[in-house]
Amino acid sequence: MSQFDLVVIGGGPGGYEAAIRAAQLGFKVACIEKRVHKGKPSLGGTCLNVGCIPSKALLDSSHHYEDTLHGLDVHGISVENVQLDLAKLLARKDKVVDNLTGGVAQLLKGNGIEWLQGTGKLLAGKKVEFTPLDGSEAQVLEPKYVILATGSVPVNIPVAKVDEDLIVDSTGALEFQEVPKRLGVIGAGVIGLELGSVWRRLGAEVVVFEALDSFLPMADKALSKEYQKILTKQGLDIRIGAKVSGTEINNGQVTVQYNQAGEDKTEAFDKLIVCVGRKAYAEGLLAEDSGIKLTERGLVEVNDQCLTSVEGVYAIGDLVRGPMLAHKAMEEGVMAVERIHGHAAQVNYDTIISVIYTHPEAAWVGLTEEQAKEKGHEVKTGQFPFAVNGRALAANESQGFVKFVADAKTDRLLGMHVIGPGASDIVHQGMIALEFVSSVEDLQLMTFAHPTYSEVVHEAALAVDGRAIHAIQRKRK
Ligand code: FAD
Ligand code: AMP
Predict the structure, then answer these.
(1) Contact, 19 vs 160, CB < 8 A?
(2) Domain FAD/NAD(P)-binding: where (predicted)?
């Protein structure tokens, strides 16, 4: 086998983007990926095969279904005899996945990157053992650099053991062959809310159990409060402070035992999705004498530049600290390669965007009002609703708001929080503003096209100083 400058272990978004950037910079690169998806070796990791992409395909299809059933009447359009072809809906999702994973294979090939189909293991002295999927003999590679990008897997809890039939994790929840009549979801995190929404839209009665006493505690309080209201109105039964303590299978149903407000309760479901978080995946990745240090939580220990405890070995994405998000993994992969090449690249962890792709979407970047106060900022905020935005009303998409958090003394923008139409795209305006260290005034002085959803961004920036035009502002400046 030819000699490689760089071996990337893991072909998810972190790994494959690192491999491509390295090839662009002239490195000879191999990417080891062991995943077999629906019988075929597959690149793209969790994200493309069983994560971001298939979940978004289902979210979009299920939104079309729900909108056709309930959202068209207001436009004066009536549709009769609406039918759901779930097999076709799932097949479309699979096609989208195939298209993208195949695309990554083409990209690697086109960039001259060797995809080694099989398992990688880091040995002492930065060597890599590659065990091919086809059962042929393992080989030892001696690259100059290694990037570990083996991602994460769902957390299992003993009180709800996944049986791939009645109790599934997020992967199983992408494959229900029938819409469950009653569906339980453990965990009101991003994945639980998205998957719960998919099956609710398709007709399931959905109950979401959340052990914590608050809903989405990592989000801005104004956002989480409004968001919980909207999702509840849509019919998601979100039980806060409800800790699942056991499950039992009876007559083809799963009975969930849980405790809420000190009371033990039970409830029966046709299916149960366990969405209680993800954990770094390093099984079989590291020889005992590889020299790589792990944290207590099993993450690979890295510095700000993703360098591990072994010179020349980097680790990125879900395998290391920070939010488990595809875009964070991608940027870390590119940064690691740029560092190897001698560039002073850096990921700005303060501007990593969070999105929940429900309808409406929720998205935020930077500090929440509560975090800004904790950090000692004197805080000012501005919030503006989509309810009075011309474009939102025209589209009948008028739920939610944009909120800015800023420093009252310096006028510096600290955070942006959005619920509403296209929030996942709108929030990028806040990300760019934060990257450029904008003041609120910078945004106030810009001209936003009319009529657009983005005008709410402008109005929210104006509202920080009591200057929003389409609202009666009591505190003006
Ligand atoms: P992964 O994508 O997990 O890729 C790692 C790859 O390494 C895997 O394919 C694995 O097979 C391979 N591997 C592991 N060990 C070895 C080995 N020893 N040898 C060879 N190969 C190995 N994130 C977002 O940003 N937006 C979203 O909308 C979003 N939605 C999600 C929805 C769901 C249902 C789930 C489950 C996740 C979602 N995520 C989302 C999270 C996102 O998928 C991950 O953050 C992202 O995939 C992490 O990328 P990664 O490259 O670190 O790892
Ligand atoms: P996330 O880590 O964002 O995907 O969210 C997972 C959620 O699952 C967290 O908010 C946890 O509090 C919640 N959770 C974990 N275990 C349980 C349990 N036994 N019952 C109910 N909720 C749980």
Answers:
(1) no
(2) 4-333
> Which ligand has an atom closest to residue 278 CA?
2
What's the CA gap between 257 and 242, in Å, rounded?
A: 10
Q: Output the pTM of the full model.
A: 0.97
Q: CA 200 to CA 63: how far, in whole Å? A: 10
182 lines ligand 2 (CB under 6 A): no
14 neighbors 322 (Cβ within 8 angstroms): no
Crossing angle of helices 86-110 and 13-24, rounded to 10°:
30
What mean pLDDT is predicted for residues 209-225?
A: 98
Integer-rounded Cα Rg, in Å, for the chain is: 24
Ligand 2: centre distance to CA 242 (Å): 10
At 474 the pLDDT is 72
How confident is the model over 33-44, as pLDDT tens digits? 999 999 999 999
Cα(407)–Cα(352) distance, rounded to whole angstroms? 19
189 C-beta closer than 6 A to ligand 2: yes
**Residues annotated catalytic, as ranges:** 450
Q: Which atom of ligand 1 is nearest to the CA of 174?
A: 34
CB-based contacts of 338, cutoff 8 Å, min separation 6: 21, 25, 345
Q: Domains in the chain, please, with CATH?
A: 6-154+279-347 (3.50.50.60), 167-276 (3.50.50.60), 353-463 (3.30.390.30)
